[in-house]
Amino acid sequence: MDKISNRWRSQIEAREATGTFRQQRQPDRRVDFYSNDYLGLARSAEFQEKLAELAQTMPHALTGPSASRVLYGHNSVVASAEEFIAANHNVANCLLVNSGYNANLALLSAIAQRGDTILIDELVHRSVHDACTLSVATKWKFRHQDLGHLETLLNKANGNSIVVVESLYSMDGDFTAIPRVFALCQQYGAGLIVDEAHAVGLFPRGLVHQYGLQNDVLATVITYGKAFGLHGAAILGSKLLCDYLINFSSPLIYTTGFNAFNAVGIREAYQYMEKNPALRNTLCRNIAHYLSRLSVVDSVQHSPIQPVKFPHIQLLHTAVRGIEKLGLAVYPIFPPTVEKGTERLRICLHAFNTVGEINELCKEINKWKQ
């Protein structure tokens, strides 16, 4: 036991020494420029009140299912929500999953066989990398957004090939040219999976749907812990895909089924966004205003995720302290989450941020980027 504890201690001390030690944080009264609550649903009193009203009318949905979805842990409330989500995204089927991380584990650990090849963008979410370790297929990484490199690997790949990308990347805030990736996959007979965790909600049904490819890709993963202000995720695809996962995906089979009231909340969030399109318009204006106020821009993407890169960790920590003294909450990102030398602030813009708050943030960032 002492040897194990000492190893943990030495690894923690190493992180403390390099300024990369992480701690849990709770929200405070500072202005939020860090969370994924892009449209402000998680903090919306109106949305919260609606959920409270629903809880009063269906208290039976508040408790857990107490079993796997294949052992009576599925119910009519969740099934109805899955049908609603599938119809909303114009796909055949939907499986609600407890988180986006679990959705990627459930999907990628099961769909490829020995001798197949999974090709992933090197900057996809950690859950995709971890899911590939559970798969018996070969995993190859291609350089970020480099379709030439992807094509080279597709040429060499054995068995069935599956390509995995994000539509909107969580650290660089850049968008994938999904139609181009899909065309390349078609050329080589590969399946395409798109993780839409950060895009769905910003684009009402995600970018895959916006491009009209929702029934052409192998699967789409969407999450509800970001723009939807809730928790959970969904795998969208064909009935065959969902039947296959229910029968062969260990992370889906050997876990408790989806909470019914969370399914109710997700359905309500879709309807709330539909009634409040101004939230997206306000967010778009805030992004444009932010980009217009910076003297040096590390991203030209019209995205709510805006990286501000620093040459080393010490300068990044100093900048964070200066910004937080102004009552603005930001979050530093450092290795191993991002590559060494690309340490950054990950600025998240929201519909609820004011022009004055954005001006103050940009003024302080400009001091450090000159």
Automatic annotation (TrEMBL):
Known pathway: Lipid metabolism
Protein's recorded name: 8-amino-7-oxononanoate synthase
PANTHER family in alphabetical order: 8-AMINO-7-OXONONANOATE SYNTHASE, CLASS II AMINOTRANSFERASE/8-AMINO-7-OXONONANOATE SYNTHASE
GO molecular function: pyridoxal phosphate binding; transferase activity
Claim: Hydrolase is one of the keywords in the record: no
InterPro entries linked: Aminotrans_II_pyridoxalP_BS, Aminotransferase_I/II_large, AON_synthase_class-II, PyrdxlP-dep_Trfase, PyrdxlP-dep_Trfase_major, PyrdxlP-dep_Trfase_small
Cofactor section: pyridoxal 5'-phosphate
Organism: Sphingobacterium deserti
Transferase is among the record's keywords: yes
Keyword set, alphabetical order: Pyridoxal phosphate, Transferase
Gene3D superfamilies cross-referenced by the UniProt entry: Aspartate Aminotransferase, domain 1, Type I PLP-dependent aspartate aminotransferase-like (Major domain)
Family: Belongs to the class-II pyridoxal-phosphate-dependent aminotransferase family. BioF subfamily.
Aminotransferase class I/classII large domain location: 31-365
SUPFAM superfamilies: PLP-dependent transferases (SSF53383)
